[in-house]
Amino acid sequence: MIDRRTVVAFLATSVLFGGTFVAAKAGLDSFPPLLFVALRFDVAALALAAFVVLTRSREALVPRTRGDLGGIVATGLFAIGLTNALLFVGQQYVTSGVGAIIASLNPILTPVFAAFLLADERLSARGAVGMALGLLGVGLVANPDPATLLSGGLFGEAVMLVSATCGALGSVLIRRADADLDSTVRTAWGLPLAALVTHALSVAAGESVAAVSWTPRALLALGYVALFAGALAYIAYFGLIDSVGAIRANLAFYVVPVVATLGGWALLGETISGLAVAGFLVVFAGFAVIGSESFAQPGLRETLPGRLLASESLRSLDDAYATDGGTASADPHSVSDCRIDGSGPGCPADD
Q: CA 58, CA 78: separation in Å to the nearest integer?
């Protein structure tokens, strides 16, 4: 049974990120793209900093390990900064349909990086089939004109692909860092780094605040992408990575185009074709195929959402089984069945 908190985090990630495309469409009429992203991170960083200062102890706010620093850099530089900067730049040159397909390569690219960088996340054949169905569904929802897939927008498509690559790599590096900081505090540190990176890119591109048109529509768009698709969505998304792993967390990007399409229909009066409805069903079929035990993880299988074991506990348990004559491999209960509080069928019995 999937943990309720995990379901809420997944839905929040999908819905809030999906609304980004509608808000960005309004905001890019008033902001230069990189400056728009940088201002988004400025506002999100201030909001999240205030939140963690009020809700966390002083000790919990301080990075203390190399893993903490690595997690912050992976979050701010890759998962947030470069991913969004390149996304907003590339979106200027491609249709929303093509952009949605390229952005949805994130879940496909994540297992590639995980295979080299993570020992505990592998994609099974069944999981691969589910992901392929998800990508097919996204293609049906986006329904791009075949004539525009490679004509006139090659630069934008390349930039969008690098964006998806940075997002996938960032999520895997976060998992690899194994930080002690909780995901919300780590994100609060990462957002100022992302803001610094995108402001530097904006200056290098020759963008200026003078080019901004400060209309109510622009301010609403900035407020949404900063607070809802920024601070709140990042709390949900990075918490999801810590809870269920990079591969499963990034499945949310299959739902994002569905949410964006429904948002365009509800808020912008856009039409939804029968092909898009079929795409929705194919996406959901992909999730059904993935199901439980979709990810084969040698050595350490992922726990059920919300029951992730601390790495130090895993090491000590592995040592305990190793000294017991290697019986762990034959035990019907894996180490991952032992919860961090010491309960569960996989925990070693007290002598």
A: 27
Q: pTM of the predicted model, to two decimals?
A: 0.74
CB 157 within 8 A of CB 92: no
Q: Are 195 and 37 spatial neighbours (Cβ–Cβ below 8 Å)? A: no
How far apart are the C-alpha atoms of 141 and 278, rounded to whole Å?
8
d(CA 46, CA 142): 35
CA dihedral 313, 345, 248, 9 (to 10 degrees): -90
Dihedral class, residue 178 (left if φ above 0, else alpha if ψ from -120 to 50, else beta): left
Dihedral angle of Cα 278, 284, 286, 288, to the nearest 10 degrees: -140
Buried b (16+ CB within 10 A) or exposed e, 26-47: bbbebbbbbbbbbbbbbbbbeb
Please tell me the distance from the alpha carbon of residue 320 to that of residue 72, in angstroms, as a whole number: 33
Classify residue 62 as left (phi > 0), alpha (psi -120 to 50) or beta. Answer: beta
Using the Cα atoms of residue 181, residue 186, residue 189 and residue 190 in order, give the sign of their dihedral.
positive
- Tell me: the pLDDT tens digits for 318-338? 444 444 444 444 444 444 445
Q: CA torsion, points 177, 183, 184, 189, in degrees to nearest 10? A: 0
